[in-house]
Design goal:
single chain; about 280 residues; mainly alpha; MetI-like fold; 12 helices
């Protein structure tokens, strides 16, 4: 498998880009060129220079520092949202696969109902009750991820439940829960891992969209989506204010998508045999 990993340009490129993004987010916890919230009205809308490598925004804040801090916000929101979706969706999908019939139908119809409320609409409803914020953005994106993981888990697990070793385990008297944990979930872990990387990328885009409309991370904490929102007023005077956070979002999503494609090629036995 290690040799196959080295022969996968998609996996290597995705892992490298994702590692850089994670490193930038971790670095921002202890160091940024300037304090991300520090304002310098004398040098507002300054172009890139040796003092400010990516320039400053309309409040004189250093754009590089804000992007670094925004990486921390976006990756944290996306990570927790995916964890919520996977933590609830995978057990539901495994339960639906193990108990066909009425329970399966109830879980799937619940997933259909959840799909009717996209992350933005869910965030609007949550905000109306609890107010905007990063926690509510995580909850909204996480709720949207639950049916995704439930459907993927159910679809992959149903194939495993028909295998001979699962039938043998059931004949030996093992319960559905034990079979799911010992036999089913380990055999679909690769599928779930790939899906998690895809949902991670989508969660970053969703977080940027929620922040753009003011429902995500709140000031003064920087976020890529709000940087895009603030940059639109000065799009003709200082277009780089929109380009830099847009590039950050694009690179983060590109890296995770490449990583997901590479993992799928590496972990899917059918694709490995085709090569």
């Amino acid at each position: 498998m290690k040799g196959s990993a080295w022969r996968s340009p998609s996996l290597l490129a995705g892992a490298a880009i994702t590692a850089v993004m994670v490193a930038v987010a971790l670095l921002s916890l202890v160091w940024t060129p300037y304090r991300p919230t520090a304002m310098d009205f004398v040098h507002r809308l300054a172009p890139p220079s040796a003092v400010h490598p990516l320039g400053t925004d309309s409040f004189g804040r250093d754009v590089l520092s804000m992007i670094m801090a925004g990486a921390q916000s976006s990756l944290t929101v996306a990570l927790i949202a995916v964890a919520v979706g996977a933590g609830l969706g995978i057990p539901l999908g495994a339960l639906a696969a193990a108990r066909a019939g009425l329970l399966d139908d109830l879980v799937m119809r619940g997933c259909d109902l959840a799909f009717a409320f996209p992350a933005l609409l869910t965030a609007v409803m949550i905000t109306a009750l609890a107010g905007p914020g990063a926690g509510n953005a995580m909850l909204a994106i996480g709720i949207f991820n639950i049916p995704v993981f439930a459907r993927v888990t159910r679809g992959a697990a149903r194939g495993v439940w028909a295998r001979e070793y699962v039938l043998a385990a059931r004949a030996a008297g093992r319960g559905d829960a034990a079979i799911s944990v010992v036999h089913v979930l380990p055999n679909i872990a690769a599928v779930l891992m790939v899906q998690a990387t895809i949902q991670f990328a989508l969660a970053i885009v969703a977080d940027a969209g929620l922040s753009y409309v003011g429902l995500g991370v709140q000031p003064p904490q920087p976020s890529w989506g709000r940087m895009l929102n603030e940059a639109q007023t000065f799009i003709w005077r200082a277009p780089l204010l929109a380009i830099f956070p847009g590039l950050a979002i694009m690179l983060a999503v590109l890296g995770l998508n490449l990583l997901g494609d590479g993992l799928q090629d590496l972990l899917d036995p059918r694709l490995r045999r085709a090569r």
